[in-house]
Amino acid sequence: MVNKKLEFYYFGDEGKFDEFNPSYVCNKKYVAEILYIISASEPYSMDMFKISNRLKINVEKVENIILSLKKIRAIDERNRGYSINFPVFLEEDIKILDVFLKDVGKIIGDRVISLSDKIENEILKLNCIKSNSVERVLYHIICDEIFDGVAFEFFANKNIFSVSKSQPGGRDYIIVAYEKSEKIECHSNKLLCSSNNYRADDVLFNSFGDGNGFRKDMYRYFRMIPKSIEEGIEFHSLNIAYMDILDDFNNIITKECGSLIKNIFTNNRKYVDLNNNERKLANFLIELNYLNLDKDNGYLNIDVPVFLNSERDIIQRIGEIILLDILPCVEKIFMELKRSMDKLTSIKHEVSIKDIGNELWHQIFGYTNEYLVKNEFVATPKFKEGEGRYLQSIVI
User: Fold this and answer.
1) What phi and psi values does residue 167 have, to the nearest 5 degrees?
2) For the chain, what is the radius of gyration of the CA atoms?
3) Which of 3, 162, 166, 301 is the most buried (most CB within 10 A)?
4) pTM to 2 decimals?
5) Across the chain, what does the average pLDDT equal?
6) CATH 1.10.10.10 describes domain 6-85
């Protein structure tokens, strides 16, 4: 019999890849199964021995995992029993959410589309509109920058949900988990609600799409390497020490990539004119699909929309246009959801309603993004085998 397990998602600042990093802890063997058992049971009803018997592994292994989970406050303990301390959605929860989320994409999506004239007036002021379609720019601005960015502070100020959560080790993030199940993949991996960002100084390498695979982008690549090391090499302390160094080197690489991008953006550069180090960086960025090389003339081209930090006020204005308009719809949806929240797994485990609300907003804007794509109001990210659907951009 295959043991059921959870899949994890992280929003906020996870910090370096160490024992306080939720991705590091939750990637350990048996963690996904142990947290499923705890979440699917009555709060504080499962102790180490019951978990050990359920999974048929020795108690010492369970104890080590429990200690790691307590260190990042992913679980609470009472009378030797455990309860989850972050939003978890099981198959039974999705049945409840489906009632409220069924038409949400169309409701909010139609409101956004009705604002197209006002939005386009602002979009046309952006520098990148000269070399990109309106739909491509709208994809990054509305689906990502506004719904997965500006909206969080906007709705947090309206006291609708939490933006972040202070965590051990000086981190600031929220963990969210879903039962690993084909029945609920459309609520987790297959919605357009995942923004990957890797920043160095004033340059940001971004991708936005679904979570249905491992994207070939800056953020995901630098996060995959430590996980691969930890999974493949058993020298735990050595891995941690090396990954601490690796994290610093990744930041240096990203800064140098950012400098090259700005140089290419400002001054047309030919590949043959680059020095040896710049060529290595260019090759890396070409592989990540942020750059391409024009073989006819030898020039390097930035292959994604480039947004300017100086244009933030334009994005803020678009955000205000959209968010003020959809606010009554969002407030109504959350009011209706709260009336049925007592039946959710997370509420039974006394997880903060505002933390749960953070993920519910991801669901809401994920369905809205799908509707906007379907109606061709924004660009359509093509599916890539093993990577999912996503589009990339850069901010300088």
Assistant:
1) -130, 165
2) 22
3) 162
4) 0.90
5) 93
6) yes
